[in-house]
Amino acid sequence: MPNISSGSEFLLLAFADTRELQLLHFVLFLGIYLAALLGNGLILSAVACNHRLHTPMYFFLLNLALLDLGCISTTLPKAMANSLWNTRAISYQGCAAQVLFFVFFFGSEFSLLTIMAYDRYIAICKPLHYGSLVGSRACAQMAAAAWGSGFLNAVLHTATTFSLPLCQGNAVDQFFCEIPHILKLSCSDAYLREVRALVFTVSLFFGCFVFIVLSYVQIFRAVLRMPSEQGRHKAFPTCLPHLTVVSLFVSTAIFAYLKPPSISYPSLDLVVALLYSVVPPALNPLIYSMRNQEVKDAVRKLFQYMLLKHQ
Predict the structure, then answer these.
(1) How confident is the model at residue 1, as a pLDDT?
(2) Which UniProt keywords apply (predicted)?
(3) First and final CA of the chain: distance in angstroms?
(4) Is the pLDDT assigned to residue 152 strictly greater than 50?
(5) CATH code of the domain containing 165
(6) In this structure, what DSSP letter does residue 128 have?
(7) Integer Cα distance of 191 and 189 in angstroms
(8) Higher confidence at residue 214 or residue 248?
(9) Less packed terminus of the chain by CB within 10 Å, N or C?
(10) Does residue 175 contact residue 79 with C-beta atoms inside 8 Å?
(11) Handedness of CA 132, 133, 137, 139 (dihedral sign)
(12) Beta-bridge partner residues of 186
């Protein structure tokens, strides 16, 4: 079979065969997408407009909301369009763009979650040094490092993946262009180059995960040593949303990429991909707003301001 060229197209996995189910999927995903846009948009507006939230923790939360918007906007609109127009096609360039942006936003988000763990560690374990270690300049540099590392990682994987000769057809067994499923289309042994890049990324992912775990071990030890119960109640709410987001992010990603090949089949892969690419960006704003009183107050004030403005 001839190689897939840049003028060709890929065929994505369809959610359903019948027209009624396709339209149902479109409506469902449209609801999820609008909820993600609204939730993350409110977080962005609340942090930007409320001066009380101009702190390192909320600066990183603002960056997280931006990454969540980018991540879900990379995959879901194309899936909705395919369901609406009853097609599976995505262009070669569109597929490469999906891989680039998804790996970029996904990788940057985990780097940012690692930085947020460091922020919580310094705030609770070394509060006297917080201003000097996590100042505005340091925050900007750390955020830039998260975005920059994600972009370089994405360029590496996209360039490596799409430089491989793809000669096993053009049907991608996923609802968006995902590297492992594209590698299945590559010629024998050619995919080993990308596997080496994936091993490097997994090693970095594991290093960040270990850093987060060690940070929270130190945080919990410091919190449990606090003599005041009021101090413990004040410290835990600032950590629980981040810990919940990390747990959701890591558990779905690990199951998606490290599950045994023996339990890999299209319907399960589809559900798992939805869990780690769609659910976290939609739920993260809810997790932070439900567990953080300052965010809830800022969102409430934002709604009040909007209502007064339109009266």
Answers:
(1) 46
(2) Cell membrane, G-protein coupled receptor, Membrane, Olfaction, Receptor, Sensory transduction, Transducer, Transmembrane, Transmembrane helix
(3) 65
(4) yes
(5) 1.20.1070.10
(6) G
(7) 5
(8) 214
(9) C
(10) yes
(11) negative
(12) 166
Lowest mean pLDDT among 40-54, 101-115, 294-308: 294-308
- The dihedrals phi and psi of 94, each to the nearest 5 degrees, come to -65, -40
For the chain, the domain total comes to 1
9 forms bridges with which residues in the sheet?
91
List strand residue ranges (DSSP E) for 51-193, in order: 89-91
DSSP for 94-123, written as a single string: HHHHHHHHHHHHHHHHHHHHHHHHHHHHHH
Report how far residue 90's alpha carbon sits from residue 103's, in angstroms, rounded to the nearest whole number. 18
Q: How far apart are CA 186 and CA 145, in angstroms?
A: 32
- Angle, CA 151 vertex, CA 150 and CA 156 arms, to 5°: 100
State the SS3 of 161-216: HCCCCECCCCECCCCCCCHHHHHCCECCCCCHHHHHHHHHHHHHHHHHHHHHHHHH
Tokens of 190: 């050619």
In a domain, 300, yes or no: yes
Residues of the chain with pLDDT > 70: what percent? 90
Task: Reply yes or no on whether the pLDDT at 190 is more than 70.
Answer: no
Query: Which pLDDT score is estimated for 27?
Result: 93
Which segments of the chain are extended strands (E)?
9-11, 89-91
Answer whether residue 3 is part of any domain: no
Query: Helices H, strands E: what count in the chain?
Result: 11, 2
Report how far residue 80's alpha carbon sits from residue 42's, in angstroms, rounded to the nearest whole number: 23
Looking at residue 4, its pLDDT comes to 61
Range of the domain at 160: 9-309
**pLDDT above 80 for 20:** yes
| More confident: 200 or 221 | 221
Residue at 55 is within a domain: yes
